[in-house]
Amino acid sequence: MATTRLIAVEDAPALAQLLQQNRAFLADWEPIRPEDYFTVDGQRRMIQEALDSYGDGVRVSHVILDDRRIVGRVTLSNIVRGPFQSCNLGYWVSQADNGRGFATAAVGDIRQIAFDTFRLHRIEAGTLLGNVASQRVLERNGFVRFGVAPGYLNIAGVWQDHALYQALNPGMK
Predict the structure, then answer these.
(1) What is the pTM of this model?
(2) How far is the CA of 17 from the CAs of 21, 37, 91, 110, 158, in angstroms?
(3) Mean pLDDT value across residues 3-27
(4) Pairwise CA distance, residues 78 & 57, whole Å
(5) Of the residues 36, 64, 87, 142, which has the fewest C-beta atoms closer than 10 A?
(6) H helices then E strands: how many in the chain?
(7) CA separation for the pair 152, 159 (Å, rounded)
(8) What span, in angstroms and rounded, lies between the C-alpha atoms of 143 and 173?
(9) Residue 50 in this model has a pLDDT that exceeds 90
(10) ∠ CA(132), CA(148), CA(93), 5° rounding?
(11) Would the pLDDT of 126 be above 80?
């Protein structure tokens, strides 16, 4: 059964190994990463940065688990308070574990955390236009497509258009 938990510095070796194994698989969906990103030390730095941002209230980074085995990550980033009460969502699951419901469960978990624990009003997510699997994950979790952003993010070294999705907190009207 898929679960999520807050990322920990001790996750660095497992994440580095998973990222190395999935480097080619994730390349079409991710920004170009420096070589250091795929190392244990690089992951330790990324995790510490994520935990510092968590302490500042601007990011929530979780690992996605199959029992105790890490299969991916899910993150709420750019948390903005005040009248906006919104954030961005990002996630990935290893190639070997794709299509097994892990992303759907993880997005459901982090959505509940965003709405119930952090009392956010809105979560926004973007997918490459051709990433139908990710769009289905979002739709299964109550996200609604609201537009297309041309040249939205630099993915795989190219500024690419993205389909934009949002979910609104049903408890905040």
Answers:
(1) 0.95
(2) 6, 11, 17, 24, 26
(3) 97
(4) 9
(5) 36
(6) 5, 7
(7) 7
(8) 17
(9) yes
(10) 35
(11) yes
**Contact between residue 134 and residue 127 where contact means Cβ atoms under 8 Å apart:** yes
The H-or-E segment that residue 6 falls in is strand 2-6
pLDDT confidence of 98, banded at 50, 70, 90?
very high
What is the topology classification, in CATH, of domain 2-123?
Aminopeptidase (3.40.630)
Q: Given this model, what pLDDT does residue 75 score?
A: 98
DSSP state of 141: T
The answer to whether 14 and 70 have CB atoms below 8 angstroms apart is yes
Beta strands 122-128 and 158-168: pairing type? antiparallel
pLDDT in tens, 61-77: 999 999 999 999 999 99
The SS3 call for residue 151 is strand
Angle (nearest 5°) at CA 167 between 163 and 173: 140
